[in-house]
Amino acid sequence: MSLNAIETSVDSRSFEITPYSVTIGGEINGIDLRETLTNEQAEGLRTALLDRKVLFFRNQEITTEQHLEFARNFGDLEVHPFAPHKEGYPEVLAITHDKDRPGQENGWHSDVTWRLEPSLGSILRCLESPPIGGDTLFSDMYAAFENLPEAVREKVEGKRAVHDFEGFRVRMRARGASEQQISGFDETYPNPEHPVIRTHPETGRKGI
């Protein structure tokens, strides 16, 4: 696949996808997130998401309400049980990092895999970023699987991994949560097992 822009026609309008790399990432142009999407636009974006895995919308001045309205095009929204949310908006996580509050998400991870059914994804609205550093990075786990050595692939096929939220326990204790409160979360989220090699239910493709 070339890295030329791809134009997708939806509902007599169009949006353009400019790939960021060969397999992952695409910048969307031609859609104003302040406006309500048509069903055709929403379906087009979901198709683009399944293909490119990560979508970017630049220079979109939207409100929190518009952020949530856009997110609902992809399904029901969840409330994160551990992380602090924006006041008045339980579905929105408020993430602020600076020299006094360094980032805690800097390890490679997939979100909320400690749920029995992890979410489709997350929609990040960046309000302010430093001129250097502070990058959010993404990895194509289809490509990671497809490029595994055959011996490694055979070794991990069929294996399952336990997903724990230990990092959140540490943070909850730091915020003063009692062991009884933490124990309640242990009962609600009892360290589910997920396949090491997962098959996407819509694309049928395998990824780590």
Summarize the structure.
With 208 residues, the protein is of the alpha+beta class.
Written description of the protein model:
The protein is of the alpha+beta class. It has a domain at 1-75. The protein contains six helices and ten strands. The strands form four sheets. Strands 1-2-3-4 form a four-stranded mixed β-sheet, covered by helices on one side. It has a two-stranded antiparallel sheet with strand order 5-6. A two-stranded antiparallel ribbon has the order 7-8. It starts with 5 loop residues before the first strand and ends with a strand.
Mean pLDDT: 89
Sum up the overall morphology in one term.
Answer: globular
Can you count the beta strands?
10
Separation of termini?
22 Å
- Report the structural category: alpha+beta
Helical segment count: 6
How are strands sequenced across the largest beta sheet? 1-2-3-4
GO molecular function: metal ion binding; taurine dioxygenase activity
InterPro entries: AtsK-like, TauD-like_sf, TauD/TfdA-like
Protein name: TauD/TfdA-like domain-containing protein
Keywords: Dioxygenase, Iron, Metal-binding, Oxidoreductase
